[in-house]
Amino acid sequence: MEDSKTLVRVGVAGTVLVALCCFTPLLVALLGVLGLSALTGILDDVLLPALAAFVGLTIYAIQRKRKIDACHAPTGAGERK
């Protein structure tokens, strides 16, 4: 069960990081400071598929965590009030 929590955390962190680099000039400014501004032309070719992959990973991890949690949930049989 700990593995599913880690997978969700990685998916969400990756999605947030790639979204920040995609929709803000953060990465463009960093590449300019490092002298690698020639690479800014290919950022969309790399960042958009990475964003899709991390969103997919997050969805998969959440579904997996729900399935695992449902399997380990008490059914109510044999409980006393």
Count up the domains: 1
Order of H and E elements: HHH
How many strands, which pairing sense, and closed or not: the largest β-sheet?
Answer: none
Q: Uncertain spans, ≥5 residues at pLDDT below 50?
A: none
Q: Can you give the helix content as a percent range?
A: over 70%
Shape: elongated
| Rounded Rg | 20 Å
Q: Please state roughly what percent of the residues sit in beta strands, choosing from under 5%, 5-15%, 15-25%, 25-35%, 35-45% or over 45%.
A: under 5%
Structural class: mainly alpha
Tell me which oligomeric state these chains represent.
single chain
Summarize the structure.
With 81 residues, this protein is an all-alpha fold. It has three helices and no strands.
Give an overview in words.
The chain has one domain (2-72). It has 3 helices and no strands. The longest helix is centred in the C-terminal third of the chain and has 30 residues, at 43-72. It starts with a helix and ends in a 9-residue tail after the last helix. Helices cover 75% and strands 0% of the residues. The radius of gyration is 20 Å and the shape is elongated. With 81 residues, the protein is mainly α. The protein has helices at 2-23, 26-34, 43-72. The model has no long low-confidence stretch (mean pLDDT 84). Helix 1 (2-23) runs antiparallel to helix 3.
